[in-house]
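Hello forum,

I keep getting stuck at the same step: I have a sequence, I want structure tokens, and every attempt I make locally crashes halfway through. Rather than fight my setup again tonight, could one of you with a working pipeline run this one for me? It's a single chain of 246 residues.
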Amino acid sequence: MWLYQHHTCSDLIDLDPDTGRWRDVRDEEKPKGARVLADLPVKGSYLQENDKRYYSYWTDDGRFMFSASDGCAIDICRKHADGRIEMLVPGLHCDITPTKFPDGRLRPGYSDVSLKDGAGTTLCALTYHSAYYARLFNSDITAAAMVQDLSDWDFFVALQGGIEIFAERAQSGRLQLTVDADQGAVIDGRRLSGDELIYGSSGDLCVKSGVWAAVDDLRETAALKAGDHLPLCQGRATQWVWSRER
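Reply #2:
Ran it on my machine without issues. Output:
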């Protein structure tokens, strides 16, 4: 599977998750016309920290995993075809705290990461140079910085945030639109092909009569006629997708 180096959004590798072996992806292997990361068959990201590597990725059967070159591997959650999220480790959470020396003094620039289950059992623990990624984030003066946060640079901050989002979705039952490899999706128990999926944002004119569903929670729907304005969802602007005839 292809993974990108998290803080560069480039430097692709091809990882064999069963053996842990990897190789660099050559430019000539990339699809013709691919210009951005989203155009590539990338399954997740990785971090090289000294002599160790850390990976987070989606498997072909819908599992999101974290693994490390030292043998640690955790199945975090599973995404079902209808958008449901199922947590595979009850109570899983990720803690990031400042690193301390044995005498209690802080170790400047470093943080400890621990993944624990609901009973408080530590499943994986490590230390990494967190200040490096914070400096990269704070020194970014490109246009992309306007929409980025620390998680776009720091692999473990992104992992922590992802686990929190997955846990919230699993607990609340929120159904997020999930597009499959053929660009289709399952909405309200029906699979729509990529050609049938019609999107719009709050405030846009509705281009097709029927029931529209909120992309970030398919349980939120609105019955609209062509020419109506797509509404807010719970008071907030959102993206909508056409679901079915009324």
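The chain has two helices and 17 strands. If your local run keeps crashing, start a new thread with the error log.
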